[in-house]
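Entry type: protein chain
Record version: 2
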Amino acid sequence: MKVLIRVLLALTVMTGAVLAQSQTGDGLRIYLVDTEGGAATLFVGPSGESMLIDTGNGGENADRDVGRIMAAIEDAGLQQIDHMITTHWHSDHYGGLAELATRIPIRHYIDHGLPQDNETVQTFIEGPYRDMYGAARRTVVTPGDSVPLNGVEVRVMASAGEVLQQPLLGAGEPNPYCADFEGQEDPSDNANSVGVHFSFGQFRGLHLGDLTVNKEFELMCPTNPIGSVDLYVVSHHGLPTSNAQVLVHGIEPRVAIMNNGTRKGGNPESMTTLHTAPRLQDLWQLHFSVLSGQDYTVPGIFIANGVDDQPDTMPLAPGPTMPGSPVAPGFPGFQDHRGPAHWIQVDAQRDGTFTVTNSRNGFSKSYAASR
C-alpha cells in the first residue's frame, strides 16, 4: 500500500511538472481581463515569468475584479506574480491590489511614485502598500527603464509625467500627425501613468495606461520614438481624453484591444481615430459599449462581454455604471455585471505572428508577421 502511495505521489509530481511546462511554451501570452471599465493586463513570458499591469476596481468591486484576474492567473498556471505594475493611482487601476496580494504572492511592485494632493492614495501607499512591497521589493520607474521580464523586452515609455527622450532602436522618424494636434488638459494622475513598450522577437506592443493626449504629444513629437506596433492596448478605456491621432495613427497598430466598460469608453471620437488608423486590421473590445453608436460598433464576434445587453437605441452620452447608482433614464439595467466574465487572449510568437482569441465564443484570428 505504501509503495502504491509513493507511486501515485510520484505520478502526481510528474503530472504537475508536465502541466507547468506546458503552460510556459515558446510564446508570449497576454490576457486582457474584463474589469468593467477598469484595467488588468496579464503577461506571461516564454519561461513562465509574469507581469501584471493594474488590478481593476476597488471598493465593493475589488472581490469581483480580483476574482476575474485570478481566473486568468490560474488559466496561465502561475504560482506568483513576478512584476506588478500600477500605472497610476486611480481606483479603477489600483483598487484590487490589496485584495490580490492576499491571494497570490507578488514579488516586485512597480509604480511612478507618490501622487500629489490625494490624501486617500497617500494613506494607502504609506500604509497597506508599504506593507506589501516591504515584504518584496519596489521600483519607482522613469522613462527608459526596463522591466526584467525574462524573454520579453519591456521598456518604460512614460512615468510621473515624463516621457522617453531617446527613440527605440529603428525608430525616430518625423511624425506627420504632429501638425494637426489639439491639446486638452487633464491635471489628474492619468498624466502620470506608467506606460510600457514590449517586444518579443519581432512582435511589438504598447500599453500606456491612461496617458493623456498632451503627454501623448510630448512622447510622439516632433519625432516618433516608437515606430509601428502590432498590438495597441487602447489607452484610457477608449476615452477621447487619450488616444490622440498623433499617437494612434503614428504607431500604426495592426490590432487594437480596448478594455472598456458598458458605459465607459468606446466614444465616437476615439472610435473614429481607431478605425481610421493606418494598417489597423481589427479592433477587439472587452465589452460592448452603448456609447459607440451604431456606426462605430464592431461585430459582436470581436466583443468579449455584454453583446446581449444592447438597447434598442444607443445613447451617445455616458451614464452611471456602478452598482447601486441610479440608472440612466430609458436604459434600465445597464449596471456593471457581477460574476464571471470573459477575457481576450493574445498568443504571440518570436517571428511576429500572433493570434487573438475571444474566450466568450472561442473565436480566434491569426495575424501574419509584419512586413
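Comment: The helical segments are 2-24, 62-75, 91-94, 97-101, 119-134, 213-220, 245-251, 268-275.
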